[in-house]
Small ribosomal subunit protein uS5m
Amino acid sequence: MNSRTYQCLSCRLRDTARQSVQNAPRRQFHASTPRSSRRKPAYPNVRQSLMEAQSSRAAEVEKLASETGPLRPYTERELQLLAMRYTPEQMKVIREGEQAISREHLVTQGRLRGDAFRPTYIDDFATIRPLVDKPARLALDDALEAQKEEQAQQQKLRIPGVQYSNEEEDPHMTRLCQQTGMTRDQIRKIRIKNLVSHRVVNQTRMGKIQSLYFLTIAGNQDGMLGIGEGKAAEDEDGRRQAMMNAIRNMKPIPRYEDRTIYGDVEAKVGASIVQLSARPPGFGNRCQHLIFELARAAGLSDLAARTPRSRNKMNVVKAAFQALTTQRLPEDVSKARGRKMVDVRKVYYGGQVY
């Protein structure tokens, strides 16, 4: 009996403890407020207010559109002001246009803007204000044409090779003009082409130093050709260095009839061998792209080339340049042999052989 009473009492105490734990408030571990304490927004619903405004506006439009009768006629003062600006034919067209416009369109389209991007002044936009509006396209075109004519006139009055104050003075270009004796216009007409570019690494005790290597050619397409190398950490500096060196190293290239070379020449740089051969008129430059760029920059139009061994780009360009600059001229051969040289093609055939 006592055990049962004890068990029932224990069960009652356990149930009471569970109810007290469940009713205890729990601690919130997040920043958001509980739903019970959330309030309604202080401002009304914008969409609902907008819909109410639109509905009231629609009722106003219907009311104004339902009214009959013409618009308010012009006063005498208004007619005098309009007559000062428009002709009688234009006034007639204005009246007919106003009669063709319905009241509904006037109410919906003729109201002032109320948005944030509306203009701060009331205007019919008939005239252009230079302080507010953009300039007219016709006026802008006229100004551009006048500026071009002025620049062309100034260009005619300039003396070649003279530095003017309004031109940007490049120290590299100025030094190049002093070293080569050429003017800026002559340097700008030189054909420049970058043929080889790759990344190089120099191993030092401080680590690997990376640089960019460039091999550039320069020629005036009239018998002058040069190659230059440049190496720098930046792409622009390396290209400019190679271009400047190529222009400084320009040498005359002997050309037979200003179109091809004298005979067959061969040059070797490293493991690359380049063999160049003269060709008749109209043959063209039939060679690989590197030698083709060299021939075009030098002003050669009939040339054949072979590279039987290594085709390393850098060595091929250097070997081709060496072959073009070390040609054996007929004048040198005649002087070495003590003979008089006569071009049979020019003397006996008048140049018409092929």
